[in-house]
Amino acid sequence: MNRRRFLTLSGVGVVGAVAGCSSEADRAESVDSHPAAADLEAQPRRGELGGHVILAFEDPSCPTCRRFHENTLPDIRENIVDAGKGAYVVRTYPVIYPWGEPATQALESTFARDSEAYWALFDHYFAEQSSFDSDNVLERTATFLTEETAVDGEAVASDARERAHDDAVQADIQAAENAGLGETTPIILLFEDGEFVTKVNGSVSYDLISEALGERDG
User: Fold this and answer.
1) pLDDT score for 2
2) Omega before 60 cis (within 30°)?
3) Which residues fall within 8 angstroms of residue 209, CB to CB, at 6 or more apart?
4) Handedness of CA 122, 128, 130, 135 (dihedral sign)
5) What is the pLDDT of the chain when averaged over all its residues?
6) What is the DSSP letter of 30?
7) How many CB atoms lie within 10 A of CB 185?
8) φ and ψ at 214, to 5 degrees?
9) How many CB atoms lie within 10 A of CB 177?
10) Furthest CA-CA distance within the chain
11) For an engineered disulfide with 201, which of 85, 122, 166, 187 has Cβ 3.0 to 4.6 Å away?
């Protein structure tokens, strides 16, 4: 990362939490070697790898993740993904409310069947976040998938109860732990053209992301 830009980023205070910027920026890890990015190509992704990477650890039950999804992600899609400058990659990380854990199991079971249905379900969890709890999440998930996607919702709910894709869930959790990311979600790791820039978490704005990735001036 450009040293001048890093100093500017550290000083603007655009975001509520910028964790460990100095030490992590100096490590200059690449997306190919960073422990949080292990098995990156197998993760749900919008856009193509090879440019910038915005790697997000999100919990579907996390209100701050919902705000990131509603307020920041549209700008990422428009200015980074759709512009062909990089990829937005999600790793689910259920650490906030209990219903996030079965929801994460359902997300991985859905992704194993249909990636577009995965994104539809991910959006649905955030859009209807306040209506979910541990008792209803899989029933509501099955209904949504069956009515709104081509995926068999009951099959996904059954897989989630049996933890049929728990290996994928645990891989995301292990990646976060190996990287020492903590549990303040969302946790966003930014790679400028494949080079690690910084990790930010909490209320992450697109202004901060664009500054970190050198996209502030277009």
Assistant:
1) 47
2) no
3) 54, 72, 76, 80, 188, 190, 200, 215
4) negative
5) 89
6) B
7) 25
8) 70, 30
9) 14
10) 53
11) 187
